[in-house]
Amino acid sequence: MRPPVSRFVLLAPLAALALVLAAPDARAWPVDMSVRLEPGKERFHKLSVVDWVEVEDPSIVTAEVLTGSNELLLTGLKPGHTLLLLYAEGKFAVWGLTVAAPGGGEASKPAAEPLTAARKACPGLKATEGAERSLTAEVKDARCREALRAVLKTEAYLARELDLTFELSVMQEQLAALSAPLKAQGLRASYHGAGLVLEGSTTPEGHRKALWALFHQSVGRVPLEDRAEVRRPAPPDDAGTPSIPTP
């Protein structure tokens, strides 16, 4: 039994400057988009909908959703690479952010060696490069899964270019690897068919940590039903506010 990994375009092309959050939700490598920035320069992206964003390493790039709009402001601070997590209406996406001077460095890291290793670990793997990039593979064991993760971390392939099918045992192993980081945040995950359900109660910070764990520890795109209850901090009481006497 090999439940298929659902594929979908979570994000519109960069030229459209729009975030399209399409059901079902996504998780795991690879990134949805690769964005290139220059040090000290700002870049705006118009998003169709967004609840919040978080940069993994804010010393490289800062991200801010402008008040009263769905405009995302990205500012490159220093050369390097980091990730951006975007969340809206129970769905999330991850962008790869590279900061480099014009003409300096590559938009994505070289993938030749990881791809060669993945071909050995995943018999039948098919990968094309150039304008019509694609990667297709059957993930039958943990060795293949880890080899693919090394390829996808290079950002040589984006989510829309990936087509994977998994053996059920591999999906169960991947789920087991997620148990500890999710439990630490008060959450748990389970497979319903080929989809993943996230449940439990946590803080906003715990929720974000859980989503990062889902992305970093997994390979492939699968439907995610986010049922997590996010406990918002209680508003401060008005005990110190002077009362106004009733006339």
Please describe the structure with a list of short key phrases separated by commas or semicolons.
Immunoglobulin-like, 14 strands, alpha/beta, 4 helices, 4-stranded mixed sheet
Q: What does this protein look like?
A:
The protein is α/β, with parallel strands linked by helices. The chain is 21% helix and 31% strand. The protein has four helices and 14 strands. Helix 1 (112-121) runs antiparallel to helix 2 and helix 3 packs antiparallel against helix 4 (204-217). The protein starts with 32 loop residues before the first strand and ends in a 17-residue tail after the last strand.
Which secondary structure elements does this structure contain, and how are they paired or packed?
Elements: E1 33-37, E2 42-46, E3 52-55, E4 61-65, E5 71-76, E6 80-88, E7 91-99, H1 112-121, E8 126-128, E9 134-139, H2 142-152, E10 162-166, H3 168-183, E11 187-192, E12 195-202, H4 204-217, E13 224-226, E14 229-230
Parallel strand pairs: 1-7, 9-10, 12-13, 12-14
Antiparallel strand pairs: 2-5, 3-6, 4-5, 6-7, 8-9, 11-12
Helix pairs in contact: 1-2, 3-4
Would you state the CATH class? Mainly Beta
Poorly predicted regions are 1-25
Mean pLDDT: 83
Assess the beta-strand content as a share of residues. Answer: 25-35%
- The CATH topology: Immunoglobulin-like
Query: How many strand segments?
Result: 14
Give the % helix: 10-25%
- Major sheet, described briefly? 4 strands, mixed
Distance between the first and last residues' Cα: 75 Å
Order of helices and strands: EEEEEEEHEEHEHEEHEE
Question: Shape from CA axes?
Answer: flat
Rg, Å, rounded: 20 Å
Strand order of the largest sheet: 1-7-6-3
- Briefly note the structural class of the backbone: alpha/beta
CATH architecture: Sandwich
Number of domains: 1
User: Given the structure, what is the number of helices?
Assistant: 4
